[in-house]
Design brief:
By secondary structure, the chain is of the alpha+beta class. The protein is built from three helices and seven strands, in the order βααββββββα. The protein has a single domain, classed as START domain (Alpha-D-Glucose-1,6-Bisphosphate, Chain A, domain 4, 2-Layer Sandwich), CATH 3.30.530.20. It is 28% helix and 41% strand. The protein is globular, with a radius of gyration of 15 Å.
Length: 149
């Protein structure tokens, strides 16, 4: 399981709004190359956004579905690139005493077969998520630099 955190000076409500804006995911989520569509009932539980992930010629159409949405504390997504490449991504937001937020991203395989690869996938997933959260923090407050992993 890969776990990463970033600190933002924005309050949890503002950070959560960024997580609920799927059209911005390609701007901060490393590997997300473009958005294709968002369900009309977004961000209801069960709604999905559809995007393309990958690099260069190795791209795959992916979907992310909301499994749990508890604003502004928790968002759980099921990501699915193929029947075997699936994960559960949990965003947890904790307010800081200064009025900011600590945003934690936890990603784990959703399919048992993915668990067999987990020791090999956790390190690159951790690195990707660390860079993605840094980019998200920069997007939320350009020039802030108030991030930690």
């Amino acid at each position: 399981m890969a776990i990463n955190s970033v600190r933002s000076t924005l309050p949890p409500e503002a950070v959560f709004e960024h997580l609920l804006t799927p059209w911005e995911y390609p701007k901060w989520l490393l590997g997300a190359s473009k958005m294709r569509d968002v369900d009309d009932h977004w961000p209801s539980v069960g709604s999905r956004f559809h995007h393309t992930v990958g690099f260069g010629p190795l791209k795959v159409d992916d979907t992310s579905e909301i499994l749990e949405c508890d604003p502004p504390r928790r968002l759980v997504l099921k990501v699915k690139a193929t029947p075997i490449v699936q994960g559960i991504v949990t965003f947890t937001l904790v307010p800081t005493p200064e009025g900011g937020t600590v945003l934690t991203l936890q990603e784990e395989p959703a399919v048992r077969a993915g668990g067999l690869l987990r020791p090999a996938l956790d390190p690159p997933t951790h690195v990707r998520n660390e860079r993605s959260l840094k980019q998200l923090a920069d997007l939320m407050k350009p020039g802030d630099g108030d991030t930690a992993s």
